[in-house]
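hey m, so remember when u said the C-alpha cells were messed up on ur end? i reran from scratch. heres the input so u can diff it against urs
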Amino acid sequence: MSLTRRQVTSAALAAVPLVGRSPGKDRRTLYIAGDSTAAQKFADAAPETGWGMAIPFFLRKEIGVSNQAVNGRSSKSFVDEGRLDAILATIRPHDLLLVQFAHNDEKSDDPTRYTEPWSTYQDHLRLFVEGARAHGARPVLATPVERRRFDADGNAVPTHGDYPAAMRALAARERVALLDIEALSLALWQALGVETTKTYFNWTDTEQDNTHFNPPGAIAVARLVAQELLRTRVLARHDVIRLHQSIPTSWITWPPAS
C-alpha cells in the first residue's frame, strides 16, 4: 500500500519527539537543528557533551532552548526524517531556529546524508530558512564548529572544505544572520594549541575523539554561539548572560538514556 505525502509526514511527526519545548506561551524559544556536535547526550555517552547542552547557561531564563540536534544527521537526512517538519509544527512567531550542519553532509559515500556544498547543501539549508520565516520565526545559520586537527607545524587546519563558504554565501543572499562558528572555533583551537585542545574534546582513556566535546569544550563553543547571537543582534544584550564568567563543568548533566 502506498502512502500519501501527508501520511508520511504525519508518521514522521509522531515518531520525532520534541524535547525542551518552551511551556509558556509568552516565552521565546531557541530551537537548535544540527548534528552530534550540538546534540543532547545521555549518561551512556558521558563525558561526551554537545554544545547545545551548555547554551542555556548563557541565556536569560525567559529564553527557552529546544535542542533538536541529533547524532549523525545532515541537513538532508534531518529534513528527510521529518525532523524539520516536527519543529515547524510547534515553532511560534518570534522564536529562533538555529541551524548548524556540515559534518555529515560531507559523507560522500552515504547518499542518505551527502549534499554538495554549492547546490544541494544550500537547497536544504534554504528549507530551514523558508520554513522558519513562514511561521514568523527567525532563522539563524551557524557554520559548523571545527574539528581538532593540526598540521606538523602545530597550526589548526580547517576540515569542512567549501561548506562554510557555501553557508556564508547563502546567508548573505537570503539576508539571514550568520554565526561564524567555524572561523571562531578554528581560531580558538589555534590559540589553545595541540595539547590543551585535548582537554576540550572527548579524549578519554579509551577514546581519542577529535570531533566531539567534553564539558569544557561544549561550554567554550556555546560561549562562542552566545557571543555571535549578541554580535549579530539576534539577541539583545540583556538576553545574554555570563559571557565573561567561568561556567562550572559540574553544571553539565547527562540524563539517563531512555
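this time it looks ok to me. The mean pLDDT is 92. if urs says something different then somethings off w ur setup not the seq
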